[in-house]
Amino acid sequence: MILLQSPSRYLLQILTNRLQNLDKGVELDCQFVEFNDVRYHIQASVKNSNVVLLSVSLPTPPPETEFVGGLPPGAIEAIKAAYGTMAQILDPPKDGYNLTLKLNLSKLPPDEEHKHALLVKVASIRQVVLGAPLQVVLKRLLSRTAAPDTNRPVALVHRPMESFFLIPQADKVTVIFPMQFNDSVDTTLATSFLQEFVEARRTAGLNNSPPCLWSPSPPQELNGIPAESLSANAGFVSFGMRLLLLIVILLFLLHLPVFIGAVIFSRHVEGRKLDRTVWSLSTFQAYVSYHVKCSEGFMHTRMRRRVESLIEALDRAKPGSADKQAQIAETRSFKRLSLNDGRRSLNSRR
Amino acid sequence: MDPAASRPAVVIDNGTGYTKMGFAGNVEPSFILPTVVAVNDTFVNQPRSASTKSSNWLTQFNAGVMADLDFYIGEEALAKSKSSSTYSLNYPIMHGQVDNWDAMERFWQQCIFSYLRCDPEDHYFLLTESPLTPPESREYTAEVMFETFNVPGLYIAVQPVLALAAGYTTSKCEMTGVVVDVGDGAAHVVPVADGYVIGSSIKPIPIAGSDITLFIQQLMRERGENVPAEDSFEVARNVKEMHCYTCSDIVKEFNKHDREPLKYIKHWRGTKPKTGAPYSCDIGYERFLGPEVFFNPEIYNSDFTTPLPDIIDRCIQSAPIDTRRALYKNVVLSGGSTMFKDFHRRLQRDLKKIVDTRILASDARLGGEIKSQPVEVNVVSHPIQKYAVWFGGSVLASTPEFFTACHTKAEYEEYGASICRTNPVFKGMF
C-alpha cells in the first residue's frame, strides 16, 4: 500500500527487459533519480550486450558521517557478499557518481527463481550500499559483541546533508532521526503523525515492534553532536532496537540439538527480517513524507466532497430553481426539428 | 541556485488510454501504464445504520480509511479487478479531459511514489493537457500539484506543441506545422505557428482509438467469430495494435484478401477467462477496415462523415494565409492511433490530391495566365510517434530555459492557482 518497496521498479524492469532481449542487444543509456537524491545511470552497448554498467550516486554526506572512498563503511564487502561474481566494482567510478558496477548478465544463475532473486537484489542496490553500516551494527547486536567504543553515536547519511544517528550498545541499538520538513503544513502533519506513531506502538498488537519515542528537543544521547547537524522542525524519533525476536533465536540456539530444524527456519526468517529492518530504518524519513503527502491527498478528497455537497445544498435552496430545471428538461425532451426533417416526415407520410 | 533545478524534471503525459512518465533527458519514458485506477469501494456503499455503537463506528471509520489507501493503478489495477470483485475500475481521464479528480490525484500519487519513486519536492514537473482543456482544469491541476505534492515548479504543456518539439531534434528546427494527434480517447488537428497554437483553427475529430477498437469488435462479432463476450474488447484492441494496417485502395484490398486468404488472414489464439478453454479465431478484413474508418468514416458512423484528410485541409485553410504553405509542408503525426503501417503515406496521398485539385481549379479559373507555385505537402512520421508527446516534453524539460518558464511554488503561494489559468502558447494569435 503506502510502503516503499526496496527494489527500484524501473531498474528491475530495465534489467529483466535486457535479459529477455539479449540477442537483440539495443543501445541503452538512461538516468533517473530516486527519493533522497539517489541517482542512477545505466548504460549498455550493442557490441557487448551481456555487460551493463550501473552507476549510483549517493546523497552528499554531512561532515559528521564517515565515508570511505566515497562509500559508506562496509559497503564494498556488502556488495561483494550480495552479488558475488556477477558484479565487478570499477575503480575509479564514473565521473560524478560514487559507485560504478559492471554487471555481467551471462553470469546469472541458470534457474529462473534464483535469477529473478538476484535481479531483485541488484535493483535494491541502494539498500545494499546505504544500509551497509546499519547492517553491520545490527549484526553485531545479533552476535552480542559490543562495538569497540560503545555509547558514541554513529552518524549515517540518509538524505543530502542530513543524517540519522545510531547508538550501539551491547544489548540494544538506539536509532534517532532528526525530522526535517520544508513546508509548514507538512511539518504540522508530520508532527501529529509521529505522535500518533508513538501512540500506536503502545497498542496490544504491536508488542514485538521496537519501542519508539518522540521528542521536540534532541535526546541526551546526542550530546556530542554539533547543533547545526541537528536541525529538525518536526521533532526527534528514536527507536530502541532491542529486537525481541533475536533474543528468542538465541534461546533456540542454546537448545540446539532439539530445535535444529526450527533454528534454520528461524534464522532464515531472521535474515530476511534484518534486510527489512535495514530498509525501513534507512528510508524512515521518506516513508513519513510519503505518508504526509497521502494524508494531504486524502484531506483534499474529503474537502472536495464537502464542497460538492454544499454546492448541491445551495442549488436546492435557490428559489425557483426547481421550476427552471423542469423547464429545461421539458424543452430538451423534444427533438428540435429542422426544415429538412419536417419535409422528410411529410414525404414518409405520403 | 534552486537545488531542484539541478535534478532532471519529471515528465508525465496523461493520456486517455495510457500514461507515459519518466525523467527529462531520457529517450524513452520509464513507464507506459494504462490510465486506470482500481478502487476498493466496498466501504463507500455500506449503509450507515444509526444504531451502531461508537466502537463499531470507529472500526467502520478505520476500515474506510484503509479502503481509501487500498487502490492500484495501471496493469496491476486491471489484474486486480479481474481476480476479485471488491475492486472497481475507474478511468480518471475521459476524452482527453480529467473527469475524476480524486482518482487522478491517487493516480499521480502512485506514479510519483511507487513507480518513479521520486520525492516530488525534489523535482520540477512537466504535465501535459489536450489543446481544448478548460482553464479551470488547469487551475485544478496546479492546486493538486502544489498543495498535495509540494512540487517546486510546474509547467503544463500543450500536447501538440510537444509533439512538434519531438520532431524538432530528429529532422529540422521547425516549430510550424499541423499536428494530427489521435489518441485513445480524443483526437484533434491542431495548427501551430512558430510554437504558438492557432486556437481558432483547432479541429476536433470525433473518432479516436477506442472507436477503432469498437468497430473491429463489431466486425468480428457480426462475422460470428468464436470470441468470448467478456474478452472481445481486449481481443479487438490487441488485433488493432498488432495486425491492422492502412491500405491504399479498399476495393483492391478486398480482392487481394479473397485471392490469397492464406497470406492475409491471421489467427488469434487465446483462452477463455472463465473456463480456461482455448479458442482461436480468424482476423480478416478488419485488418484494413479498422484504420479505414479515418478515411471513410461513413463505414463506422453515419453522424460524422468527413474524412481525416479533408479535416486537415479545412484546418489549414482556416489558418492565417501566410502560414498555410508552411503548415502543408509539415504535417506531424502523434498518438498511438497513428501507428498503423503506411498511415502517413495514405494521408499524404489523399491530402496531396485535395490540394492539387484546388490548384488545378484555380489555374483553370485564371485561364492559364498566372501559374501558381506548387504546394509542397509533407506528412512526417517518426518511430517514436507513440510517445512523441512525452519525448517532446523530455526534450523541452532538459533545456535550461525550462526552469525559468515554470510556475514556481513561491508564485503559487503569492497569487494562487490563477497563475496556471492561461497558457502562453495560446497567446500568440487569436
UniProtKB/TrEMBL annotation, chain A:
One GO cellular component, as annotated: Arp2/3 protein complex
Major localisation: other
Alphabetical keyword list: Actin-binding, Cell projection, Cytoplasm, Cytoskeleton, Membrane, Transmembrane, Transmembrane helix
GO MF term list: actin filament binding; structural constituent of cytoskeleton
Transmembrane intervals: 243-266
Compartments, record wording: Cell projection; Cytoplasm, Cytoskeleton
Domain of life according to the entry: Eukaryota
Pfam families: P34-Arc
GO BP: any one term: actin filament polymerization
Its job: Functions as actin-binding component of the Arp2/3 complex which is involved in regulation of actin polymerization and together with an activating nucleation-promoting factor (NPF) mediates the formation of branched actin networks. Seems to contact the mother actin filament. Arp2/3 complex plays a critical role in the control of cell morphogenesis via the modulation of cell polarity development.
Family classification: Belongs to the ARPC2 family.
Subunit structure: Component of the Arp2/3 complex.
Protein name: Arp2/3 complex 34 kDa subunit
Source organism of this protein record: Lithospermum erythrorhizon (Purple gromwell)
UniProtKB/TrEMBL annotation, chain B:
InterPro entries, alphabetized: Actin, ATPase_NBD
Pfam families: Actin
BP-aspect Gene Ontology terms: actin cortical patch organization; Arp2/3 complex-mediated actin nucleation
A molecular-function term among this protein's GO annotations: ATP binding
Transmembrane portions of the chain: none
Keywords: Actin-binding, ATP-binding, Cytoplasm, Cytoskeleton, Nucleotide-binding
GO cellular component: cytoskeleton
Protein location: Cytoplasm, Cytoskeleton
SMART domains cross-referenced by the UniProt entry: ACTIN
Keyword ATP-binding part of the UniProt annotation: yes
Family indicated by similarity: Belongs to the actin family. ARP3 subfamily.
UniProt protein name: Actin-related protein 3
Source organism per UniProt: Lithospermum erythrorhizon (Purple gromwell)
